[in-house]
Amino acid sequence: MAQFSFDIESTFNKPEMNNVHQLVVREIANRFDFKGTPADVEWLPDKKGFKVIGADEFQVQSIIDMIGRQLAKRNMTSKVLDLGGAHNAANMRAWQDVPFKDGLSQENAKKITKLLKEAHPKVKTQIQGDSVRCTSNSKDELQSVMATLNQADFDFPLSFGNYR
């Protein structure tokens, strides 16, 4: 009997993030309440996240909300944003570094395998670095695994790939 499998990863679409950046910069330029302020979105080194700049914390939060809306418009989840960073302020400016969550940690991979072992005992899971491989004899079972993972409320984004 044939074995079917796929990988569960925690990644984001890099070209789409570039589009989100351009759209947010354009929206900031067009908004009247941001005229004459230092409001901007810059890339962190190696395009690993955004540096959100504003006149105060309220403006920084407004820009982060704009990023979330643009992600939603492009069918991406805002869970890719790591909003745990501290707000910084100096010289009439406020900023926050918002790195992207990329890669599946061991702890998160264990959460996924535990959930799948409880919900789908016939599916075999294997942690492989920063991804989890799911294997089954039935494609239908793998599709139900994807549905289960999409319904689960994890605080990190999930993507499926490497179908075999």
Description:
By secondary structure, this protein is α+β, with helices and mostly antiparallel strands. It folds into two domains: 4-11 and 103-161, Alpha-Beta Plaits; 14-99, YajQ-like, domain 2 (Alpha-Beta Plaits). 37% of the residues lie in helices and 24% in strands. The protein has four helices and eight strands, in the order βαββαββαββαβ. The protein has helices at residues 14-30, 57-73, 106-119, 139-151, and strands spanning 4-9, 40-43, 49-54, 88-90, 93-99, 124-128, 131-136, 159-161. Helix 1 (14-30) crosses helix 2. The radius of gyration is 19 Å and the shape is elongated. The relative contact order is 0.22. The model has no long low-confidence stretch (mean pLDDT 88).
CATH topology of the largest domain: Alpha-Beta Plaits
* Computed structural class: alpha+beta
CATH homologous group name of the largest domain? YajQ-like, domain 2
What's the SSE pattern?
EHEEHEEHEEHE
N- to C-terminal separation?
A: 14 Å
- Helix % is 25-40%
Percentage beta strand: 15-25%
By CATH reckoning, the class of the largest domain would read Alpha Beta
Total domains: 2
Residue-averaged pLDDT, rounded?
Answer: 88
Query: Major β-sheet, in short?
Result: 4 strands, antiparallel
Question: Measured on Cα atoms, how large is the radius of gyration?
Answer: 19 Å
Strand arrangement within the widest β-sheet reads: 6-7-1-8
Low-confidence stretches: none
Family: Belongs to the YajQ family.
GO cellular component, one term: cytosol
GO molecular function, one term: nucleotide binding
Function: Nucleotide-binding protein.
